[in-house]
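Lecture notes, unit on protein representations.

Consider one protein chain, 412 amino acids long.
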Amino acid sequence: MALHRLPAVAVLSGVLILATQAPTIASAAMPRTLVIGVDHADPANQQPGQGRVFEYTDFFSRNIRIRQGDTLDFRTAPGAVHVVALARDEHAARTTYPVALLDSDDPNAIGSGRPKIELGPSNGPITDGNEKTGGGQVGGPSDPPFCGLSTSASVCTFFGGDDVEAEGSVVPTFDPQGNPVAADWKVTVLAGPGTYSYFCFIHPGMRGSFTVVQGDHDRDRDDAITTQAEINAASAAEFSQDQSEGLAAERSANEVHFTGGAPGTRTYDVSVGVGTPDLKVAVDEMLPQHLNLAQGDRVAYHWPDRHNVHTVGFPATPPNVTSPLPGPFVPDAETDNEPFELIGDPGTAPPGTLLSNPNAVVDSGLRIGIAYGLEPTSQRWSVRTNASSSTGTYAYQCTVHDFMVGTLTLSP
């Protein structure tokens, strides 16, 4: 989720030094700091208490021109989770530092029948990485950025070429009391002239570009570089378009659809999150959230959001909780000497599992969107009921985004 508003502060693009004697001459432009929004505040559509949150998987803004020596301040919205990275070639960086992998060592996941999903190295911070050869200082998902935060010991720098720099998934977007706050990750760009990418490792399709202007002539031209005021104006337009597209995607998926005829013979569809066609918004919501079923009906869950990961789990209903749902990522159970790994929840139930009663734990396991490029994976799962299924309300949730909840109310 995100609860962030971009500042409307204009940053001076240069300074003039007035000599004590005529004529007045222009100096080399002073380095600037430009704020780039990561995700965006939208309180009207970020309502976890109502089971719906719009993640703005976008940069505000997406394209800028800077001078060598300028600093980019990536301001992640309060409560948002992203891994911001800089590289010359986004595709090469993603290939060298994958965010997810298929586990080839262990049995397939129970829920999908497909290979389990491992977390890759780009879930954590990367400093002095190389988009061709890898390496550098690479942390895990629970590690904060090595540099660039106000609390970090060193400043982040991006040198261009094959350099890869990434902030990691643990940035302080919540204060010690649990209140959402914005988080700043600053990188000074020392790359030579050219165009480079900034992107989010954990949300494929979330990207922007920055161009370092070339030559002394361009260094002294105000119109050759982007100002903070221009960034803010472009951001407002982007947000308006993103929000409109997110609402349209939510409306479309929130209609009740089923196949079959009479109650007890129907199969209902539920979207486990949806994304906009341009991947600029992830609507984290079970759509529709509530369904009324008759014994014999089925529910087919599908994962249409190409750039997100979710689960569907039916936890035991209190006060008889004996088997809570597992977390979305669990330690690998392998007993060999390979490095410690985190894998996606493999689930407890294959497609077509019978819902027996609201106290039985039924878990789809983790499903990953097709934009991550992992095959074979699965984006579908289902449950069924019959005359032996206890009537009542079956509650379920996503464990990646635990505010994503839904209910199935079963009647005779």
